[in-house]
Amino acid sequence: MPPASDILSDSEIAQAYEDVRSDKSDTTWLVLKYVSATSDSLKLDKTGKGDIAEMAEVLGEDEAAYAYIRMTLGNDEYSERTKFAFVVWQGPGTKVMRKAKMSFQSGQVKQVIRTYAVEIQTSDKKELDAEQVTMKLRKAMGANYDRQGSGY
């Protein structure tokens, strides 16, 4: 397996990561995809300024990808918090060999995409529904004042 610096050599990846992290940028998500079906190298496939539903549209049913998204949580302007989610996507049609390699490669991707509240490994776009991801982020934050599903 090549080192992370080889599979993530695209300087655009680091810049896109910084843009998603920055409050000064209106970029809210990025998607990394493999250069080709046989390559282990990743490239920046797309970035966007929309929500998680927009990001999920970029993920193909037969492909593997990594995504990173900035989300704002809060009940009002005073309690707003910015949180980040890291997504390891394996579309239902992803080849077995690619899935096997991803378990190792996701660790390399995390050397570049380092800061996030939750990691979501999925092959089902329903798990990337804004409400579900928001709930996971709230759980990661600790206190949940919504009382929905909190068990109290």
TrEMBL record:
<keyword id="KW-0963">Cytoplasm</keyword>
<dbReference type="GO" id="GO:0051015">
    <property type="term" value="F:actin filament binding"/>
</dbReference>
<dbReference type="GO" id="GO:0030427">
    <property type="term" value="C:site of polarized growth"/>
</dbReference>
<keyword id="KW-0206">Cytoskeleton</keyword>
<dbReference type="GO" id="GO:0030833">
    <property type="term" value="P:regulation of actin filament polymerization"/>
</dbReference>
<comment type="similarity">
    <text>Belongs to the actin-binding proteins ADF family. Coactosin subfamily.</text>
</comment>
<dbReference type="Pfam" id="PF00241">
    <property type="entry name" value="Cofilin_ADF"/>
</dbReference>
<keyword id="KW-0009">Actin-binding</keyword>
<protein>
    <submittedName>
        <fullName>Actin depolymerizing protein</fullName>
    </submittedName>
</protein>
<feature type="domain" description="ADF-H">
    <location>
        <begin position="5"/>
        <end position="138"/>
    </location>
</feature>
<dbReference type="InterPro" id="IPR002108">
    <property type="entry name" value="ADF-H"/>
</dbReference>
<dbReference type="GO" id="GO:0005884">
    <property type="term" value="C:actin filament"/>
</dbReference>
<dbReference type="GO" id="GO:0030864">
    <property type="term" value="C:cortical actin cytoskeleton"/>
</dbReference>
<dbReference type="InterPro" id="IPR029006">
    <property type="entry name" value="ADF-H/Gelsolin-like_dom_sf"/>
</dbReference>
